[in-house]
Design goal:
Elements: E1 13-22, E2 26-29, H1 30-33, H2 41-48, E3 52-55, H3 62-77, E4 84-90, H4 101-109, E5 116-119, H5 125-139, E6 144-152, E7 170-180, E8 189-192, E9 200-202, H6 206-211, E10 220-222, H7 224-246, E11 255-258, H8 263-272, H9 285-288, H10 295-305, E12 314-321, E13 325-332
Helix pairs in contact: 3-4, 7-8
The protein binds oxa(dethia)-CoA.
Length: 334
Amino acid sequence: MATELASTIGSPHARILSVGTYRPDRVVTNAEVCEWIDSTDEWIRERSGITERRHASDQDTVVSMATASGLKAIAAAGISPSDIGMILLATVSHPYPTPSAAVEVGELIGARGAPAMDISAACAGFCYGVAIASDMVRGGSATYVLVIGVEKLTDIVDKHDRGTAFLFADGAGAVVIGPSETPGIAPVVWGGDGSQIDAINMTSSSVAFRDNPELGYPTVVMAGQQVFRWAVTEMAKASTDALDRAGITADQLDAFIPHQANNRITDALVRAINLPDTVPVARDIITSGNTSAASIPLAMERMLENGEAPPGGTALLIGFGAGLVYAAQVVTLP
Ligand code: UT7
């Protein structure tokens, strides 16, 4: 007979306790972007919904922005940094393959000793983090998990690329996930489609660039229409599945907070899930651009801050992007 091992049992349920964000100071208008690419303010507004975005300064790094947002989330949760039992940091723009940004953030926020790791799931990274954190809290491997979505995309976007320069931007958002008496994070619906790896990828690898500098520094390239088509079809299904897995219908939502990829994608998802007009929809992209892993917590904080979404309300989150990968879940707002 196998030797019996000890096991852990965590909280019956998990929930998002708080949110904190960091928005870089520098506002970049469409007019400024049009100095770098052949475009117009009208085209950018019409095709994406964006009127302005935030660009990080030279002093803002993935680690500094993540730290600022994480400290705010921890303070808002009413816990101490030393209570954090895991740091999950979702990003694709940390410039060091190792060590992780997460472990450095742990040191800077005063959570030395906490396990920490980065998640590479592009614009789905934050929702991946929420799903993993929820399972950790319920499984007993951490009581409080800090989940951060952070990007300095301006470091990996070619400002002269017409297909990406107007879209992508910088920022950070963090949540603390902890124990709850009632369900606060419904089952995740997630997946990946590696056959579409070319839809959003890099111009080359850093190794190829080292060996052939004429390739140019690696930057993001996107087959915009391919991603758009996938998002409006497959992400509509994932949104509906996430509602089903939560056991609710769209009219029971208090907010819809999709990844801020493009306002037209959001419009299509709203139609596809038959979201009633009365349910507020995140539109943070208008002034923040597409900040990949940071976009959902940034949009969540904005909706709570300006009173569009009620604290303790029910929200559908869905993140999707390079991979292609996605994750969706219904949550109780902090
Ligand atoms: O966050 C990760 C996931 N990413 C996304 O979800 C992004 C998904 N894709 C999109 O949001 C859209 O594809 C974009 C906003 C990136 C582009 O919009 P689109 O409507 O798909 O544009 P398009 O690439 O089909 O181009 C339409 C037209 C073309 O001109 P013609 O051939 O119709 O004459 C392009 O040459 O717009 C032209 N165009 C531009 N015009 C002005 C392409 N880029 C630009 C530009 N400014 N920046």
